[in-house]
Specification:
- The protein is mainly α.
- The protein has 1 helix and no strands.
- It has one helix at residues 2-124.
- It is elongated, with a radius of gyration of 47 Å.
- It starts with a helix and ends with a helix.
Length: 127
């Protein structure tokens, strides 16, 4: 049994020494593989870019069609928008004229309202 344990221990120790001695060779091999790893990463990136390019190639005509449609519609609406802007300007001017005319009338209405309020109060008093 002791021989078996010693034999296994010797084999394990030899394997470990061999493994440790192989580490520099493994490191060299990995350094040589690094460019291959980078190429694999680049290949994945290129495949993704190809997928995006295909998607854009399929979607761009529709997007351009929609932009052209919106542009056409805006050209149709431009005269109406211009007319609305002019009408809004006219309405603003009318509001200013009405405000200027109503200002003095408001004061007159308040003065006329006071005697009418007094008359109503005196009529509603018991007496």
């Amino acid at each position: 049994m002791l021989r078996t344990v010693l034999g296994i221990t010797t084999r394990v120790a030899t394997g470990l020494v061999s493994g440790v001695l192989a580490l520099p060779r493994i490191a060299d091999a990995l350094e040589k593989l690094t460019p291959l790893t980078q190429v694999a990463e680049l290949r994945g990136t290129l495949e993704r870019l190809e997928q995006l390019a295909t998607f854009l190639a399929n979607e761009m005509p529709e997007a351009l069609h929609q932009v052209e449609s919106v542009q056409h519609r805006l050209r149709e609406l431009e005269p109406r928008i211009t007319a609305l802007a002019e009408t809004t300007g006219q309405l603003d001017e009318s509001i200013r004229v009405l405000a200027a005319a109503l200002g003095p009338l408001q004061g007159t209405a308040e003065r006329l309202g006071r005697p009418a309020d007094r008359k109503r109060r005196t009529q509603s008093l018991p007496g």
